[in-house]
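Bumping with the actual sequence this time:
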Amino acid sequence: MSSSQAKPSYHHGDLRRSIVAAGLARIRAKGVSGLSLRQLADELGVSTPALYHHFRNKHALLMGLGEAAMAEFVVVMQAAIAHDASAESFALAYVGFARHEPALYDLIFGSLLWRDSHAEAFQAAARAHVRAISHHVQALQNRGELPTNVPALRVVQVAWASLHGLCRMYNDGLAFTPEAIEDIAKTAMTLMHRALDKVSA
């Protein structure tokens, strides 16, 4: 076999990272239904058993990809908060991720991994992110930028429910334009802030 035909050699950790990167790329291009361990193995130039050494089946791979996709989402949200701590910035970053990464958004916020009792690691990572956002909201409340009469976690849950519904409608093709979804997201945050002010009055 010539050197050009030889299969690439991976260290243990390198192959796992390569599998995850290739898996995310395939989901971006073809969705979860287009994910195939055999095709990933062919793409990476390794045997299918080599992939099974890291992920015992497609479902295990999806859990690993879900954790990686959630990590990407967290980076986007943290960057938005670091740049501008307002609820509007949070909302725009959230819907922006859903718009630009619809397949990854479906993976991390869809039922596939959330209804799976074996996806504890993924679910724990997601809940940790929600707690981090709750701490951010608590900090805004402590600074007097948000009313304190509603617990921070409940504020996050209401905002999340509103934005998730909006993103699902957009990604499912329910008529919104990119400009409209951003304006609706900002309006939702404004209305929520007014409602909190009214409750605290």
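The tokens above came from a reply further down the thread. Residues 66-200 form a domain with the Tetracycline Repressor; domain 2 fold (CATH 1.10.357.10).
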